[in-house]
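Here's what a typical entry looks like (Lipoprotein):
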Amino acid sequence: MSLNYKYFALVLAVSALAGCSANRVVRFVTPFDAEAARKQLEEGSNNVKGSALIRQAGGGVVTCAGKPVFMMPVTAAAKEWAAQVYGTSRGGFHNAQGRDIKFKGRDDMFAAVKTATCDAQGGFKFDRVADGQFYVFTRITWVVAGSIQGGSVMRPVTLSGGQVAEIVLSPDSL
């Protein structure tokens, strides 16, 4: 997958995280170490398998089927991003009807990601991942009576030594 597609998809995901409420512009203050992030994106011996889902109030389940899942190296700038979107750098859920966040001055960070696509059951995988810490996140939404429901879910994962990490991205699992 080309870097341009990754960049475009991630920027779309970040800019579309929320509904139609008033915009809040966030200017990053933490410098981004692009070289360290790119090094973490080199091939390694770890794998991540996962699924992403949101359980609806009525008991139905919606997955990320057909949507991108992103893996971003955890850097100081990425921690700042996570705290702005999810309220913490330790994983979280951002409601689609919440505040709309526009990021300024950090396009280089959003280009430094790995991308996978959820299968029909909401499963995804990242193969040959380097040792390190990463944020794994996706957006799961649906429409009810013209209103966007769901949101974005993120979880950190730490990899080392050729492990296979299995994760679930769901507000219920945080």
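The helical segments are 3-15, 34-40, 76-86, 107-111.

More examples are in the samples folder.
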